[in-house]
Structure formats: C-alpha cells, structure tokens
Amino acid sequence: MKIAIIGAGVAGLTSAKVLTQAGHQVRVYDKAPDVGGVWSRTRRYPGVTTQSPKAQYSLSDFPMPANYPEWPDGAQIQAYFAAYAEHFGLDRVLRLSTEVTAARPDGSGGWLVEARPTGTDAGTGTGTGTAEAETFDRLVVANGIFCEPAVPAYPGLDEFTAAGGRLCAGTEFHEVEDARDRRVLVVGYGKSACDVAVAIGQVAASTDVIARQMLWKVPRKINGIVNFKLLLLTRLGEALFRYLRPGGVERFLHGPGKGLRGKMINSIGTVSIRQFGLDKLGLVPEGQMEDIVRGAIGLATEGFFEGVADGTLTVHRDRTVVRLFAVDGRPSAELSDGSTLPADLVVCATGFIQEVPFLPEEVRERVTDERGNYLLYRQIRPVDVPGLYFNGYNSSFFSPLNAEMAAVWIAGDLGGLVPLPAPEAMREAVVEQLAFMDEALDRHHCRGAKIIPYSLHNADEVLGDLGLNISTPVRAWHWLGPVNPAAYRRVTPELLKRLRAQQAAVPPKPDHAPLTPTRAAR
User: What angle do CA 25, 23, 140 make, to 5 degrees?
Assistant: First the structure.
C-alpha cells in the first residue's frame, strides 16, 4: 500500500521503518527541517534531557551510542534519531520542511493529503510554498501529543509587549543568552519548566518559577545511590499503580498486599523530601508520592532544588500569572495572590494542545468524544474511520518502545494479522479504558493519549493481539530489573516473517482493486 505518515518524530520514524520493511510505499511529512519531533532543533529548549536513561529510551534494534551519557541531552537524541533514519534508509521517504495542511478521505477508501513547504528552516507551520496534493491508501497520524504548545492568553499582553516584554512557550525558547541579565518568569513546574529554569538561572538577573501546583519529583538516584530505573522502570514499579486489568501479582499488591505496596512507593517520597530538603524549601507537595500518577510523573532536574536553596531560583508555589502589564514602563506580571514581579521574559512550560487540525471536522468528531478525548483502540486505531491510524498517542516512560510496538501493530493490522473484535466491542473497550484513566489519573491523560504509568501493559496488549509478546522468562526478569527495549528486537523480524508467509499463501490482488475494508470490523 501507499501510506502517508504525518510527523517525523519517534512515532513517525518507527512507523516508516516497520511499514517500509513490510513492503509498503511510505512518505513521511514534517514541518520541521529535521527529524526528531520534540527533539528538533526548532523545538528543544536549553537544558532539555531525556526523562528515562538512554537504555530505556532506545529503540529495540538500534542502541544509543556507547559514549552517550546516561541521560542524553536534546541534541544527542536528535542526532540518534537522525542516525536511525539514515541506518534504515528512511531519508529517501522524508519530506521535511513540509506541512500537511489537510488530509481527508477521498471517497474511495484512500486519503487525499495536501501539503506545502514551510521554508528551509522555518518549522513554524506557516507554509509559504506551493501546495501539493497526493492520494494515499492509508494515513498514519504521528504528529505527537507534544506538538503544539499551550500558552495562556494573558490579559494585558499588548501593554507588556510594548514595554519590551517577551512571552514565549518553552519550545520557542532556544538560546539561553536571550535570558542574560533579564528578569525571567518560568511558568510551570513539570520537568520542562524545571529544566529551562536551571539553564536560565545561570545567566538571568532573576529567575522566578510560578508553580500552579506542587508535583512530586523522583531523584535520578535515590539517596544518591540507587538509580530510579531500578524502582520505577520495572514491571514491579508499574504494578505499584492499579491497572484496569490487573495480573496476579498486581491483584495481590492492590488487595492483601496494599499496605506493602503503599510503603514501597511512598518511601520514595520520604526519601525525596529528605534528599532535596523540601521541608526547608517549603516545596513539599500535598498528599503522598503515590499521588504522582495524578499529576505528572517527573524526574527531578539536576541542580533545580540546589538553585532554590542558594537563591538562584525562586519558586512561587500554588500561584498563577493572572495578567501581564507594565509598571513605570517596565514589563511586569501580576500573580494570583496579588503580588507583582518584574518580567522581561515569560517562558510558559504549560503543556501542549493535542490537536489534529489537518483532519476534517467530521473525522475529528468520529475519533474523539464530547470532551475531545481520543477514542483509539489500543491507542492506535479509530473504531469507525477506515484506513486511519495514530501512533505516538501512547506517551509513556518508554515512548520509543511503545511507538515501535504500535508500528508493528499497524503493520500487522494492514496485513490482516490482528484479530479485531467487532466494532461495538472495540468501542466498549475504548470507553472502558478511558473511564479508568479518568479515575486513575484524575483526567491528567492528555485527552486519552498519555498512558504513564501503564507503558508495559500497553506493549503487552498490543503484542498479545499479534501473538508476538516477548518470552515469559524475559518478562519475569523485567519484574526486578529495568526493562531493556533490546529484549523486543526480534518482534519486528517475526512479524515480517509471518507477513511473508501469508503473502506467499494468498495471491496478490490486481493493482486496480478497490481499497475497501475486507473485514466486518473494518
């Protein structure tokens, strides 16, 4: 088949690699001038690093360079994905600096994709070149759930800007020197906010962090000794959080062993308070460490709490910016407690908007519910929109691995190897999963697209559909040791072997055969 993929981040690249190996003709569009998605040079901010160690952030069949540090920075990750694309011959299918402006069903089972150049180094989505249109048999949406930053519409912005102030998203702040000797507000308290605050704090005249809500932060090394991956990047670590369909050990941990489970996870919170000196800093979050799943599971940024302790950074907890304005001709910001801070530069690390503006409204209505949550079976397939897939809408601790396994699932489904339930059963499963995520994550699931902390459950279910899960002994080992994506390196070759066997057994259809669903579930 001829398949269009929107997005050249990890989800788009893995989809392109697996689908190309499965014999499909692929084209990948991205409005950025380079691959990597959030790691593109047009989007990465100073201080950005991975949240997972390099081994856990690797793809199954392409390890990261041995000379990379355990937590690579943004430029290193982008270089890694560029090398992945080159290694697997994806350069020839990439259409970079090209924005997809529309993608709609063509009425005969395919998709009409309209795209235009964005310029050599724009990556802004403000296409200026001549639009082109091409028809594809299938469409994979891999634009990512961290694509468009959500920047609050603050009152007084015109007055603030006229006084020389600058407001930008974290992904729009690229040069730390732009903050030199300036009074900076960083809005947010997630990992990206803390990362950029540490970088800015080295050069700014003042750096104030405006935190609407305190979040639990996990040290890279508990007590300075135990790598956090040994605790949370294991199957046991995932089992500490209740899942919709628990296994045997999970049923024990959330039943008779509930007390033990609570002590295991909340002890990390106790250590974090002591290790970071949160009591003294006045930055202890409400609740307990197990509540981390209801906010944002974040790795503590190296140097952040040290910066607060030495006065380089000032955190204003439980507050928001209510307006921007000018005081005596100087740009300033008013906080929700009525206080005023000077603010030459306001950097908003306030999340992202999960949008697919290139899809027609009638398609968007069919893939989302009334709240805008994506209704995707296995986080991949809309129930009633034939020929459309999503990848990257399963953000997790192991985002590259989950994206890779989703690509395998898509290739398997295209080859008729996924035994899909009836549409009604798929819809019920999707609604049930979303209702569970509403309750378990207090609706903090990026419109149904964030699956933390259920990364491995998702991989198990996706591969279980294909009968391609990794061996029981390896999964057992992952209960105590950190999951290594390399354990999944044989999944794609096995899928390709099955596809070839099926193709050998079934004569191909003529090229002019209509592209219509061949199964009731489609």
Answer: 50
DSSP codes, 425-465: HHHHHHHHHHHHHHHHTTT-STTTTB-TT-HHHHHHHHHHH
Neighbours of 52 (CB within 10 A): 25
Contact 165, 343 (CB under 8 A): yes
Round to whole Å and give the CA distance between 5 and 12: 6
Question: For residues 228 and 397, is the Cβ–Cβ distance under 8 A?
Answer: no
How far is it, in rounded angstroms, from Cα 295 to Cα 289? 11
| Cis omega (within 30 of 0) for bond into 453 | yes
Rg (CA), the chain: 23
Contact (CB, 8 A) for 199 and 186: no
- How high is the pLDDT of residue 125? 47
In this prediction, residue 292 carries a pLDDT of 75
- Other Cβ atoms within 10 Å of 470 Cβ, number: 18
Q: Are 97 and 123 in contact (CB under 8 A)?
A: yes
pLDDT of residue 18: 98
E-strand spans in 287-380?
A: 298-299, 313-317, 321-327, 330-335, 340-342, 345-348, 352-353, 376-377
Neighbours of 417 (CB within 10 A): 18
pLDDT of residue 508: 57
Report the alpha-carbon distance of residue 370 to residue 372 in Å, rounded.
Answer: 6
Name the DSSP class of 396: -
Rounded Cα distance between 324 and 158, Å, is 9
Structural contact between residues 420 and 389, judged by C-beta atoms closer than 8 angstroms: no
Amino acid letter, residue 481: G
How far apart, in whole angstroms, are the C-alpha atoms of residue 98 and residue 100? 7
Q: Which residues contact 301 (CB under 8 A, 6 or more apart)?
A: 47, 191, 194, 195, 197, 198, 217
Alpha carbon distances (Å) from 357 to 9, 100, 188? 18, 9, 26
Q: Give every residue of the chain whose pLDDT is below 70, as ranges.
A: 120-129, 294-297, 507-522
H/E element holding 197? helix 191-201
Distance CA(299)–CA(276), nearest Å, equals 13
